[in-house]
Design brief:
Layout: H1 3-29, H2 37-52, E1 58-63, E2 79-80, E3 89-98, H3 100-105, E4 111-118, E5 129-135, H4 150-161, E6 169-173, H5 179-187, E7 191-195, H6 199-205, E8 215-221, H7 222-235, E9 238-244, H8 248-256, E10 265-267, H9 268-271, E11 276-282, E12 293-295, E13 298-307, E14 312-321
Helix pairs in contact: 1-2, 6-7
């Protein structure tokens, strides 16, 4: 990254990213518990797009709501910002409403999430599944590997931490496809924390001792994997990911975005490299952030913004007048 671009990220975009995720979270919060996933997602998308277009940058959405024919706004390849063609070139990965089902049912850990990096810094991941494993900071490099079995990975992490496997907690999406994984993890004695949705928060949880989550395992969306990696780049940790393809259409999507090695195991720094910024605002209460609260005449939000180059993590509590 050039010095000029770095200064722009530092002085302007770091805290501006919080304003963007706040806008999306506030918009989605009006539909918490209403049972309408699409309406909540649409509200968050529209608010995030409007906020992004107010920023001085030449931004390109590399991970968004889908391809252009699938998503009317914030689609992959869409240009955003008020300085297209003249401002700093920024790659953007976003999920205006991480956990749409969570929001619709008023469950925990629904977030508005955003990551930015210098041009070319974020993998342009197709909207397919990704096999994932993640741990927090403090472990020897290479402690996890998707070519190992879940049991082998658990034993390696337990040995490095100096505890028996039964003392570990593994976070896994509660899906039928994970039945064998969950059974294997429990067979070696470790605890399994099942989450209904929101695997970005699940991966980030491995970096926070307060969550008690040691490892994240299982398959989920590839775009969410890149977003989670942007956060881990800022706070430390390890991540391995491998794209999973169910049919030729999905393989074609990967080729469209320049991915030729379909069996590649990606490392953290390959999914999110260079200097990057990660921001998230809580929509509903969760392990990472409190959700949007409405009181007479005002709303409150809680956000986090992180930067890889400095390792800085800022927690931001916002108070917004509603009159």
């Amino acid at each position: 990254m050039t010095a000029a671009a770095s200064q722009v990220l530092d002085r302007v975009l770091v805290l501006e990213m919080v304003r963007v995720t706040e806008a999306a979270a506030i918009a989605a919060s009006t539909l918490v518990g209403r049972g309408d996933e699409k309406a909540a997602d649409a509200a968050a998308v529209e608010a995030m797009r409007e906020a992004l277009n107010s920023l001085y940058m030449d931004g390109t959405v590399v991970i968004g709501e889908g391809e252009r024919d699938e998503a009317p706004m914030l689609f992959i390849g869409e240009k955003v910002g008020s300085a297209i063609g003249k401002g700093p070139k920024i790659d953007i990965a976003l999920d205006p409403l991480e956990g749409t089902t969570i929001c619709a049912t008023a469950g925990p850990n629904s977030l508005a999430v955003l990551a930015i990096a210098e041009e070319g810094g974020l993998l342009n991941a197709p909207d397919v599944y990704m096999d994932k494993i993640a741990v927090g900071p403090g472990y020897p490099e290479g402690i996890i590997d998707l070519d190992k079995t879940p049991t082998e990975n658990i034993m390696a992490v337990a040995a490095a931490k100096g505890v028996p496997a039964r003392d570990l907690i593994v976070c896994v999406l509660d899906r039928p496809r994970h039945e064998k994984l969950i059974a294997e993890l429990r067979s070696v004695g470790c605890g399994v924390m099942l989450i209904g949705d929101g695997d970005v928060a699940g991966v980030i949880a491995t970096s926070d001792p307060e969550t008690t989550v040691d490892v994240y395992m299982g398959s989920g969306g590839a775009p969410e994997g890149v977003l989670a990696c942007a956060a881990l780049r800022c706070v430390g940790g390890q991540f391995k990911g491998r794209l999973l393809f169910r049919n030729d259409d999905e393989r074609g999507r990967a080729a469209k975005w320049g991915i030729t090695d379909l069996d590649k195991q990606y490392d953290l720094s390959e999914l999110a490299k260079g200097d990057c910024i990660f921001a998230a605002t809580g929509v509903t209460d969760g392990s990472l952030l409190a959700g949007v609260k409405r009181k007479k005449g005002k709303m409150t939000t809680e956000s986090v913004v992180m930067r890889a180059s400095s390792g800085t993590v800022r927690w931001v509590k916002g108070e917004h007048r509603t009159d």
